[in-house]
Design goal:
heterodimer, A: alpha/beta, Metallo-beta-lactamase, Chain A, six-stranded mixed beta sheet, 13 helices, 22% strand, B: Rossmann fold, Hypothetical Protein Yjia, Chain: A,domain 2, 3 domains, seven-stranded parallel beta sheet, 25 strands, elongated
């Protein structure tokens, strides 16, 4: 008898069917490793009342063509970011021939004096396309259930001049100097998120900083070289609660330009749901969302909103028709999306075209589109 | 062997360090798509909603593989020191129509034939009870705490075979006759390609060749009885195979061992996969079909995946509107006035050389003028093989234009338009939102009849599932693409050029902002031969605007730049 024909004809479903009822169950010798279904861990990390994000800068670099010319010219995506000869670690030897030590030696005296403008000017002379550098940074304000507000600076950008200007525009310099910012979260070691760290250290050398515990030696040294003297928490893989309703999560993953590990911020907003803030989401939106689903307990079991850059996946999908960020996000039914940065202008346009709840921006301060939250724009959760 | 090349921290941070190592191995392999493909990867989908798990495809195999992290333990291994020993379960999900399923467990076939199968495989997280019949092997990962040794081990029966001692009877007779196999899957060989891709990935990242060991041991044959009990045969044996790739000093695999000289079934990349030279795709499409819109969306897809792509643009008529619209997206090399297919063959080589030297990317797109005949371009590309590997010919077709009311869908099947459609590997049928479903279906059928081998994708605002383009190249390889087939000409025939068809371009500038009626009048006065108009001009009360006119549709949008660009009118027998 043709078993395929028989099984097609039987009353089938993915649950118990004709064969299951016969007691025929898989008996592969490999089933010694069979694990029971794992239930969601649903860690309770508390709740907060609201979250407000101020976009200080999402323009990591201003011209993609120039940036891609740099990357391909230096040898591609596997090259160590400290060797591209990007500012501020330029040594004057040209594209792909830089070192952290050479570059830092040229600017360190100026960093120590707090003259970051001069430090960047020196770096510019020795680097490739320094004016193309911008940066990613935002201010996250958490309102606790009792109304207390806590501010975190989330990444610090790349170009000293641009970030100094952007900080001043949003009043971040004063907040740092006055000790109004409770912590500085460095999501990952990429240049456009991290290399303007001296600007943070200049105003708040004592600030409590959080980084993944997988920074490379150069990245660790830079924290000290920038003049930081405060507490430094190196976050291990997994969940790290910051305060009720707010937790970091460190995803272990290798990232282009020789970087390892990225942290995202999860906020559980009372009666609303989960709000996530990402730097680039290099681990991929699928893993990012699955992890929240599996590991966290959040209000209404609802993935409410997110802010930041969105990489869909570090991989091609094995089924090409699903290889699309718009499809990848659909499953989560988000209510408020504040995407920008590496999400791509046109992907944002596509979200808007298919009716996604993308919060529009004002296209000021060198941001290029109103389709997403640009520099100086603010998003709140709940909206 | 230095583990820090894969995981730059000491072991012991978590209870899933082996899962971190696995993640790192496959993610780093995918930084550059070309490298990943040369290693044999054909797509990965991670999942973390239950166990850390992944589904993937590899070259040379139709199946989707499932990999689930089961756990790890610390063990002191005499002579080797402390090791972390991780274990992953391996699943094989054949396509529902695959004959391989006929030898899978009955329960596996039952699941595979159910309508939920495809979705269940996509959402695989390793804990699903109904997918357990597909679990046919295991992957071991041993890592030394000293960070100087790593081994990967595939363990699977040569044949996963269960004999039904009493048979399985159903109303119609024997589903499995007594003494026959209920399943008989060549499990080990099915996993070989996956394992070799993994081991080759580790080899590349660790920068050293592994020792390859094959272990063989017996295990009792399993017998299934009518009372649903399972017994082990006392006389009949099955073979369990164990293949290990060892980097650094690792404990041996079990069983009778022999060393192999190389990884069996290792993927050997074809020339196109190795990308010794960059690939050049050619983008064609009649005037105003939406080539630049499509290209910008494609670049967004590619650049979001760090697949940097340079663009060479060629516009008919002295206008650089497309280059202006693309500014900041990527590096654009604009070729001079004229059309690359007939008058610019000589400037294409220097243009390509310039852009490749400025940005040595893996691929480039040549956006041709709307009047270019791809047949002529393909011939020219043949002479540039020292610089580039010819890739896809993609033709953007304007559904709105081809379905204009009262006109036969085949009306434009002459000369250049016809060549653009017939020479395409992929036809992007754009502006599908603007035509009725029935007309769209008729048009799609018509295009299929013109070019039976091309992939036809429907697009709205230039959006398609861009992964389909990669899949199309994969399915055909470089040599079997329609555009690469030899060109046969009938006697006396020659490939059409726009000069043959009398196309001309005319630039118009204005010294005052135009009102909408004025603009419409200019377009109308140009006569019925007008195919296309574009430029950046000041509009009354609006400021500088991008003007795009094609197929009777006029679009006016705010310009990204203040600088005006002459309005260029393109068509035949232009009046006014």
């Amino acid at each position: 008898m043709n078993r395929r024909e028989f099984l097609k004809g039987a009353s089938l479903g993915i649950g118990a069917g004709a064969i299951g009822a016969m007691g025929l169950y898989s008996y592969t010798p490999m089933r010694k490793a069979f694990l029971p279904e794992v239930h969601r861990q649903m860690t309770d990390f508390g709740v907060c009342k609201s979250v407000k994000v101020t976009n200080i800068s999402e323009t990591s670099w201003f011209d993609n063509g120039v940036f891609m010319t740099n990357v391909t010219g230096a040898g591609g995506l596997l090259v160590d970011q400290y060797t591209y000869n990007w500012a501020p670690f330029g040594n004057g030897k040209g594209i792909g021939k830089g070192t952290y030590q050479d570059g830092l030696a040229k600017i360190k005296p100026y960093i120590q004096k707090g003259d970051l403008h001069e430090a960047w000017a020196i770096a510019k002379e020795n680097s490739v396309d320094a004016d193309n550098a911008g940066g990613f940074s935002c201010l996250v304000e958490i309102e606790a259930m009792d109304g207390t507000k806590t501010k975190y600076l989330f990444d610090c950008g790349w170009n000293y001049d641009w970030m100094e200007e952007s900080f001043k525009r949003e009043g971040i310099d004063n907040m740092l100097a006055n000790g109004e910012i409770a912590g500085f979260i460095q999501t990952h070691e990429h240049m456009d998120h991290y290399w303007a760290f001296p600007v943070v250290a200049k105003y708040a050398p004592n600030i409590h900083i959080y980084t993944p515990n997988t920074f490379y030696p150069e990245g660790k040294d830079y924290i000290k070289a920038a003049g930081h003297v405060g507490k430094w928490t190196e976050v291990k893989k997994g969940l790290y609660p910051l305060q009720p309703g707010v937790a970091l999560y460190q995803f272990e993953c290798p990232i282009i330009f020789r970087v390892f590990g990225e942290m995202s911020l999860y906020c559980n907003v009372k009666d609303v749901g989960l709000v996530s803030i990402t730097g680039c989401c290099h681990q991929g939106i699928i893993l990012f969302a699955d992890t929240a689903y599996k590991e966290l307990q959040y209000e209404k079991d609802k993935f409410y909103g997110l802010y930041g850059g969105l990489h869909i996946s570090p991989f091609d999908d094995w089924d090409p028709k699903y290889d699309d960020l718009v499809i990848g996000l659909k499953k989560w039914n988000l209510e408020r999306v504040g995407c920008n940065h590496c999400t791509g202008l046109i992907t944002a346009q596509k979200f808007v075209d298919v009716g996604y709840p993308v919060v529009k921006g004002t296209a000021r301060f060198r941001s290029k589109t109103t389709n997403y939250l640009g520099n100086g724009d603010i998003i709140t959760f709940p909206g | 062997m230095k583990l820090e090349k894969i995981l730059p921290r000491a072991l012991g941070d978590s209870d899933s360090d082996c899962a971190s190592i696995f993640t790192s191995l496959i993610m780093a392999a995918h930084f550059e798509r070309t490298r990943a493909r040369a290693l044999g990867w054909r797509g990965v989908r991670p999942c973390a909603s239950s166990h850390p798990a992944w589904t993937c495809r590899v070259a040379g195999s139709d199946h989707v593989f499932g990999i689930r992290f089961d756990g790890e333990r610390r063990e002191q291994i005499p002579g080797y020191g402390p090791f972390l020993r991780g274990r992953f379960s391996l699943f094989i999900f054949p396509p529902a129509q695959s004959p391989l399923l006929d030898v899978f467990p009955l329960d596996a076939m039952r699941v595979a034939l159910s309508p939920e199968y495809e979705h269940a495989v996509r959402e695989f997280s390793g804990g699903e009870a109904h997918l357990q019949p597909f679990l046919l092997g295991a992957l071991g990962m041993d890592v030394s705490f000293a960070g100087n040794a790593l081994s990967l081990t595939l363990e699977a029966p040569a044949r996963h075979r269960v004999i039904c001692a009493d048979g399985i009877a159903v109303d119609q007779g024997w589903l499995v006759a007594p003494g026959e196999a209920e399943c008989d899957v060549p499990a080990f060989s099915l996993f070989l390609r996956l394992f070799s891709v993994l081991a080759a990935t580790a080899e590349e990242q660790l920068g050293e060749k592994p020792r390859i060991l094959l272990g063989r041991s017996d295990m009792p044959r399993r017998l299934f009885h009518a009372d649903a009990s399972m017994a082990e045969s006392e006389t009949e044996k099955e073979t369990l195979l164990c293949l290990a790739a060892c980097f650094g000093p690792c404990p041996a695999v079990e069983g009778e061992i022999r060393a192999l000289r190389a990884l069996p079934a290792r993927h050997r990349p074809e020339e196109l996969e190795q990308r010794l030279r960059p690939v050049l795709h050619v983008l064609t499409g009649f005037l105003g079909a939406g080539k630049t819109t499509f290209l910008r969306r494609w670049l967004d897809f590619l650049h979001g995946r760090e697949r940097y792509t340079g663009v060479i643009q060629n516009e008919f008529g002295k206008v650089e509107l497309d280059a202006t619209l693309m500014k900041g997206d990527t590096l654009v090399e604009a070729l001079d006035e004229g059309c690359v297919c007939c008058s610019l063959a000589d400037s294409l080589r220097p243009g390509l050389e310039r852009i490749i030297s400025a940005m040595p990317a893996e691929q480039f797109v040549l956006e041709t003028t709307g009047l270019a005949n791809p047949a002529n371009i393909m011939e020219e590309l043949g002479n540039l093989r020292d610089l580039v590997t010819p890739g896809l010919v993609i033709t953007v077709a304007d559904a709105l234009d081809l379905c204009r009311p009262g006109q036969d869908p085949g009306r434009e099947d002459t000369g250049i338009r016809l060549a653009q459609l017939q020479k395409a590997d992929v036809i992007i049928l754009n502006k599908c939102d603007a035509v009725e479903a029935a007309a769209l279906e008729a048009l799609t059928d018509h295009l299929h009849s013109l070019n039976t081998r091309a992939l036809i994708l429907h697009a709205r605002f230039g959006n398609i599932p861009f992964g389909e383009l990669d899949a199309w190249i994969d399915a055909h390889g470089e040599t079997r693409l329609p555009s690469h087939s030899p060109r046969l000409m009938r006697m006396g025939e020659h490939a059409a050029t726009h000069a043959d068809e009398g196309y001309e371009a005319r630039a118009v500038s204005f010294d005052h902002p135009l009102s909408l009626p004025e603009l419409k009048e200019i377009l109308s006065k140009a006569g019925p031969g007008l195919c296309r108009a574009k430029g950046i001009i000041a509009m009354e009360g609006e400021g500088p605007c991008v003007i795009q006119y094609a197929a009777g549709r006029l679009d006016i949008t705010p310009a990204p730049e203040e600088k005006p660009i002459d309005l260029v009118l393109i068509g035949t027998d232009l009046k006014g």
